[in-house]
Amino acid sequence: METEKIRVMWFVPPLLALVANQDPQAIAVHAARNRSSDEQFDALVAGQVDAVVTSMDNVIGWNHRVGPRDFRVVAQIERTTPLTVIARPPLRNLHDLRGANLLVDAPDNGFVIALRAMLRDACVASDAVRLTPAGGVKERFDALVAGHGDATLLGPPFDSMAQAAGLACIASVQDTYAEFPGQGVVVRQGGAANASVAAWLRALERARQRVRESAEVATQAVLAAGFPDAVAAAMIARNPDSLRPSAEGVALLIAHRRSLGLAGADNDYSSIVDDLMIGQYMGGQQ
Question: 169 and 278: one domain?
């Protein structure tokens, strides 16, 4: 019986964590919802948490900030993170975003990098839009609905909630970049809580296998957390084939930074993912 505990921060509880929580052998998880990726960074640096669930691009950005620069991804817990560009009327497409105020978590790391790449591909210059930090997905949803910005990136369930409120879906990250990866579990290398992270990853791997074997088990875990059926189905569809971060997905993140001239363009898989740590934790099962 694993008796360790782990302290985690996330924007929205991920499916595998919800399923793992039903396992009597699972490690005790002390979870907190964070309001921004900066909050996650600060908590990891201060040792207030052992791991965060976040955009894998954050590792690239965080390792170029003043600080410890020892952040690594140790698992990818969803096949992809669905991201939709939601805009207020009358904006209808990416070209309409010229001159717009875009609500973001952070301007230089995270999911915003994919949005900036999409704008570049649509020939919208970086200086043609304004990036306004507004926090995590819930905070950005609230700000957009309240009229504090023109558009933002949202994921489930906030994307559908925004459309129900009369806002428009004008583009999808997945439609543009099919290899876009899901969120990762991020830790600091050599942390004192490595044993706890290992126990949690083993619990997440057992959960991943249970989701693959029984959609009903996964659905009940999501419903018990207060999410509707539609969210459960969407989460189950994103269950990864492995907890090992996708090489294609990581390469896409690096390519986006290279195309935008951002720090981290010279990164490779090993500077983002701690593959040795994954092998040790998962015992070759990933």
Answer: no
Look up the CATH number of the domain holding residue 250: 3.40.190.10
Whether pTM exceeds 0.85 = yes
A 10 A CB-CB count for 272 gives: 23
Per-residue pLDDT tens for 107-154?
999 999 999 999 999 999 999 999 999 999 999 999 999 999 999 999
176, 200, 216 — which closes off a domain?
176
Burial class of residue 271, CB neighbours in 10 A (0-12, 13-18, 19+): middle
For 278, the domain range is 5-80+181-282
Query: Distance between CA atoms of 44 and 189, rounded to whole angstroms?
Result: 11
**Residue at 85: amino acid letter:** V
| 67 conformational bin, left if phi > 0, alpha if psi -120 to 50, beta if neither | left
pLDDT at 192 over 80: no
